[in-house]
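Researcher: Here's the sequence for the chain we discussed earlier.
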Amino acid sequence: MKPDFIVIGAQKCGTTTLCRELERHPDVGLFPHKETHFFSFRYKRGLEWYEGLFKKLKGTIKGEGSPSYTTGEFSKLAAKRIAADLPDVKMIFIARHPMDRLPSGYTQLFDSGLNPGSFEEELRTSPKLLPASRYYERLQDFYEHIPRESILVMFLEDLKRDYTGELSRMFEFLGVESMPSTSPPLTPQNTRAHKRVDRRLLKRMRERKVFLSLNWLLPRRIKDLLKPLFRKKLAATVEWTPELKRFATDALRPDAERFLEDNGKPHDFWTWE
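Model: Thanks. This is the structure I predict for it:
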């Protein structure tokens, strides 16, 4: 069974919050283990394996969330694969100020077990930080293969300002009824404060081929209880020097202004002071 929608990114811009809200909707079957990463680095498992992830999900529409699809490493490849395998799928992309995304993206490197260098070193050299904050470039990779009307672009700043309204817009895009706004907005999900790194035992367990299947079998509430035993809190230092901030601003602002204009936002929607 092919999914009806994918939350494709951007990484560290509120995708976990969107997925939690989709998961709460009675008409939506969301694959509960964000992320499948199928169209990025699990494509060799085959489309049959991927479609099998959605067979037992309940709901009139089904989908998943994998922000790796819009990172600089995978956006071109993922877009081409999605267009070929899921020509009718709808996609959701949420952005935030690209400078604000960088510290969160840096801590994600630790969470992913990549053993990064300093914030400045990674910012200047890593293909995982600046490219993922160039939202215009990343979406152009998708628009080369996929109609614009198949991708809903959202902004984290809008979601914070009008939580119910932005979720209603997302549900309308997916073709399901809006949820009644009787509960307060979710607290921020998967933030820097939530980040942990693997202890030695978990690192060894991840090397086993069966780890992914076993990990997905465990309910989230059980994994949350076990997390302190297998993962320790992350202590990552993020320091902005004036020179480093100028470097990042120069690298991101032109793309950001094109992205804002392309999505009907004024150039001063994000400030750069």
